[in-house]
């Protein structure tokens, strides 16, 4: 995870990039220690390139070779409506929009904007701003986000619906969230990342703390057009807790998702599912890490993708089972359909197991459409287009059905069909 | 109904069908038997429109249509049904959703309204009972985790749902125990009508005790070399194929 590539001489590209970002995003006074440490990382390490293992398959030029500005924060936008009866909180180009959001109060919840009033003492305690250059970038420059705390024993009956909308041409946004679930509480968060037709950069780091016997579900939908997404989720689970996360990347020119779970208490369940279907020149990179630190836990991971045209997808799934983590059950599956010769899939499962009494498995498959199945469906009178539609839906179904709300499932299924036929 | 004339077909450059001719009238049951590799399954695949095969000569008319001009799905919509020798498992596509899509695409082709959900479910209940297919299987993914017998019964169930003019059963009996065989045959017999024809491709005479054919043909080296009544099947069962091979080479 540590970036080992150090340089003595700042290369020009880095200075130019950091120069323009820091002049646009100067003035943050909170979290001085965190920002100082992040800035050290940015200065000390080179921009990740092909020699940095964690960034080997993802070119960062899309983000780095660009002069980003900060938004003025008053964009008029049309929010796509997905009504799931949630408490909706909207960020436009990285800034909270009270005019588009619900009140920051709800029974059982304590919600504040990141950096308002007192600093949150959990923020920055999980993230890898000392090792990962792009996480450091977020830590150095974030200027908004939400800290959501769930009271002990509170079962929040409405989902928290976060919208991160990027709209203004050439703007970057750096957001930072903390989710903290006290003992025996539960929360469902739906995060919708939406990008306009303009070039934008969206960097969001979320640190989640799932307390004893608590349950957190996160549904993430990314649809970005010309947006570059860098989204990092860090989660720490205390004993007897449950964490489920589903990431559906519908569309975006450049996506890097880092999902890291530290399973720090016994008898936990963690589930990670993801779906992606890049086309054109899109690039989607999902890096995941499940760190089994203690015994008697179970993790279940399934990522599925359909890659076509000139698109590239990356899956890198790490599972660590530490020496103490006996009786771990860890499963990982990555399945891909590559539709064209010009499309590329890099799949890299990594299991590091240091305990001897565990059950772990992983599988990675990359193949083409099952033409026998297409023929079978056609032989029953189903037209070829419809046959392929049914098979795409079927392939991604076991990921899409892990979205917690049927309306989200329907939303994604319809979008997937539109995208596959555009 | 189906008129095959001098049909030639290749796969990967090897000629499998070498001038096959066959006429099938409405309501008839034709059994096609023959030694391994004689082209029985190729005939079934070619008729269904499998593009792995190249047609190099001959003609096939189905009703008033040139069958070879139609896409696979249009052949099905015109009323041709193939019960696959090896039904394909399709994880994630439910049997019911799949059949409903098929029924309605066929109706749309014929200019008919989609079938209502109520009528469809009623039909599913009635037709799945013909092959004693558990209602639970109807809701599972297409053929996924089905036993061999369940897969074959599912093929006959689909046939019963789609009500084709011509059904081709490609070794639907192979690998079935006698009870499953009887159930499959009972499903087929229930669907017999003066308008509906069947082509039963099989290795074994046993099936023909339960689905009684009007004609039996022997396919050998890509051609039909002998045709007769159902007694021919009994003779083949008793004597094997060597005498046919000798007759052909004589």
Total helical segments of chain A: 7
Backbone CA Rg of chain A: 21 Å
> Spans of chain B of 5+ residues with little confidence (pLDDT < 50)?
none
Low-confidence stretches of chain A: 1-10
Broad shape of chain B? globular
Oligomeric grouping of the chains: heterodimer
- Largest interface by residue count? A-B, 22 and 31 residues
Q: What percentage of residues of chain A falls in helices of 4 or more residues? A: 10-25%
The domain count of chain A comes to 2
> Within the CATH hierarchy, at the fold level, what is the topology of chain B?
Rossmann fold
Count every beta strand of chain B, where a strand is a DSSP E run of 2 or more residues: 12
Tell me the helix content of chain B: 25-40%
Overall pLDDT score of chain B? 92
Give average pLDDT of chain A, whole number: 92
Strand numbers in spatial order across the main sheet of chain A = 2-1-6-8-10-12-14-16-18-20
Give the beta-strand count of chain A.
20
What are the secondary-structure elements of chain A, in order, as H or E?
HHHEEEEHEEEEEEEEEEEEEEEEHHH
Major pleated sheet of chain B: 6 strands, mixed
Number of helices of chain B: 9
- The top-level CATH class of chain B is Alpha Beta
